[in-house]
Design brief:
358 residues, alpha/beta, Rossmann fold, seven-stranded parallel beta sheet, five-stranded parallel beta sheet, 14 strands, 38% helix
Length: 358
């Protein structure tokens, strides 16, 4: 059966282009288009779509207001269609908090030709969304506070925080998974490097949002900076993030090379650099996401002595990347998202204790 899609956008041009893109795919079809959420509400009742694409800024009802009501009353997979602006990135991140599965950014140049160039990406995101696990939820801006409940106890072992590193990769559903992981990290945790599939213009806002929510410091990686305990470095949307070694220090490095597995930043690139430069000092974590980016890189980490964790199927929005990593034998343990931070820190503490006794 084909994936049924309803397109909601106040631009007739965007509605037409999205319809053309979706209907060109053999496994999906547009069953309705709407210029605003009010009409969309009736269309959803009539057509029972598998996926909704939703513009952010629309007349009669804001896209976020509609999304919040939809996730509370009739949860379903939603792919946001947003503008690549600072305001657009903030609204899009809020939409992901509210339960949207993923987002597509409108091109700045010719809308029609630009959107048609996105055919493969849009189709992939709709396919992933159709398989996503959606739960009703109500999210507020005050859901987490720095140092509040849920932060794990301090490690209080200098070896654990200074020698070890946590290396994280994620894609679809990863913005919320990364947040849920990092808010549990104590201020003395090992340095953390993160690659989340996200376009330029969004990673800086995402890092700032995480920094406001977490006990640790979170920033968009700039390259050539020392990796410090209690700090997390997020790959910018325009470059691969790599780990390198300079003397006794771990450093970040940015690479604007070709996409890997169709992604830049790529999880495989980060994981492979950790395998080469950190080896047994690295702990790998692969979270929710579509595709297989990160699986082979994580296997290289394992072969270099790293210890690896994967998010389980039940708590993934899309169980693609973790499944592939598990399938190639790259992981040591699999756990629910809410348990992973404790599992990672527990392993690090036990491993450092053994090293100190030797």
């Amino acid at each position: 059966m084909k994936i049924k899609v309803v397109v909601v956008d106040d631009s007739a041009l965007i509605r037409g282009v999205m319809k053309e893109i979706i209907n060109s795919q053999p496994d999906m079809e547009v069953v309705g288009v709407a210029p605003d959420p009010i009409i969309a509400r009736e269309l959803i009742k009539q057509t029972n779509p598998d996926v909704l694409t939703l513009d952010v800024e629309m007349p009669r009802m804001d896209g976020l207001d509609f999304l919040e009501k939809l996730m509370r009353l009739r949860p379903m997979p939603v792919v946001m269609v947003s503008s690549l602006t600072e305001r657009g990135s903030e609204i899009t991140l809020r939409a992901l908090e509210l339960g949207a599965v993923d987002f597509v950014t409108k091109p700045k140049m010719s809308i029609q030709s630009g959107m048609l160039e996105y055919t493969e990406m849009i189709s992939d995101k709709i396919r992933a969304a159709s398989k996503a696990r959606i739960k009703s939820r109500t999210v507020t801006h005050d859901q987490q506070k720095p140092g509040g409940d849920g932060v794990l106890p301090a490690i209080r072992n200098p070896l654990t925080s200074s020698e070890k590193l946590i290396i994280i990769g994620a894609s679809t559903g990863g913005t919320e998974a990364i947040k849920d992981f990092l808010v549990q990290m104590p201020s003395d945790c090992p340095g953390i490097l993160i690659t989340q599939h996200m376009p330029p213009g969004f990673t800086k806002s995402f890092a700032q949002r995480l920094d406001n929510l977490c006990k640790i410091s979170v920033k968009e990686a700039e390259g050539n900076e020392r990796v410090l305990p209690g700090h997390a470095y997020l790959a910018p949307g325009h470059s691969h993030l790599q780990l390198i070694r300079s003397g006794a220090n771990y450093m970040t490095q940015l690479d604007h090379g070709e996409p890997v597995n169709r992604h830049r930043p790529s999880v495989d690139v980060l994981f492979r650099s950790a395998a080469v430069h950190a080896g047994k000092n690295a702990v790998g974590v692969i979270l929710t996401g579509m595709g297989k980016d990160g699986a082979l890189g994580m296997l290289e980490m394992k072969n270099a002595g790293a210890y690896n964790f994967a998010q389980d199927e039940a708590t993934c929005v899309v169980f693609g990347m973790p499944r592939e990593a598990i399938a190639v034998g790259a992981t040591h343990e699999v756990g629910a998202l809410q348990a992973l931070p404790g599992m990672v820190l527990g392993y690090l503490a036990a491993n450092s204790s053994r090293a100190l006794r030797v």
